[in-house]
Amino acid sequence: MLFDAVGLGALNMDQLHMVERIAGPDEEVFVRSILESCGGSAANTIIGLARLGLRTAFIGKVAGDREGSILRENLKGGGVADYVAVSDEGRSGRVMGFVDPQGNRALYVDPGVNDTLSMDEVREEALKTRLLHLTSFAGSGIRVQREVLGVIDDSVTVSLDPGHLYAERGASELEGILERTDILLVNRRELEILTGSPDPAMASAELGVDVVVMKMGSEGVRAFDGSEVMVEALETSCRDTTGAGDAFNAGFLYAWLSGHGLEVSCLFGNYMASRCIEGYGATSSLPGREALEVLEGYLRDTYQEKRGDSGK
Ligand SMILES: Nc1ncnc2c1ncn2[C@@H]1O[C@H](COP(=O)(O)OP(=O)(O)OP(=O)(O)O)[C@@H](O)[C@H]1O
Ligand SMILES: [Mg+2]
């Protein structure tokens, strides 16, 4: 079977603790409530793509603990084929967040067994795909990503969302990854860290990546694939921006894989992100195949605009 899209990146359980205040050294502070949700940037994007009807799979690693089974169930429940290795020792990845009533946050990341993923745990059939989407690992997981890129077919489109973690490593440490990346999905700050300037066209030349998409939160997106487009974000009632970037990636990649151009892909990315932030959590409010009507509408509008039609 040929998959449409396969994800490869860290899987984490996000545990958000609402606290009275962020504790300093030797202090004791009460926890008011705990919110738990499945995280992992690539997993969020792949679940978004599955919901739009693509054949998807995920490669990663968890431990045989409670968090590990919830993370795998979340993928399976989303219709994603499970190529997640299960370690018989160690802990699954976790991100522990502590938030005070003013919204200040402290984050502690426990990568757990994510970075122990090895090439012999990556099944060959999971690499038969049209698109491979990569996001960050905290440590040595990047080695497996390099190895995977060395064995996949030339026809596979590779997308990378480096997030803050990989951006901070710098372009030289992403050697072996950027050379094989076709589409870089990045936010403004990350692009500045990577290249010194928030300019997708310059980044494309400097990093040798054909398509660079720079996400700019409520300001929308600027992207370059030989020519540049700027697409404004949708006006929406924003509840929770968790996973906005991952939802954007799902919309963009869906449209791109369907053969649409840069502008329509950005429009659909923005649409998926707007649906994500209207609700809570990274994937709960993502739409299903009914969203494809919106994509068709964007296609008609941009086509008519280019022909100078009035739409009659
Ligand atoms: N306040 C907002 N109003 C409308 N759209 C928004 C808003 N915030 C984010 N978006 C949408 O989400 C997309 C991605 O958001 P952002 O630029 O914050 O990416 P990101 O930093 O990668 O996100 P994440 O923190 O999830 O990784 C934007 O391009 C835009 O379409
Ligand atoms: Mg992001």
From TrEMBL:
Pfam families with a match to the protein in the record: PfkB (PF00294)
Q: Which InterPro entries match?
A: Carboh/pur_kinase_PfkB_CS, PfkB_dom, Ribo/fructo_kinase, Ribokinase-like
The domain of life for this entry's organism is: Archaea
Q: Which UniProt keywords apply?
A: Kinase, Transferase
SUPFAM superfamilies per record: Ribokinase-like (SSF53613)
Q: Does the keyword Kinase apply?
A: yes
Check the record and name the PANTHER family matching this protein.
RIBOKINASE, SUGAR KINASE
So what family is this one in?
Belongs to the carbohydrate kinase PfkB family.
Q: What is this protein called?
A: Energy-converting hydrogenase T, subunit T
State the encoding gene.
ehaT
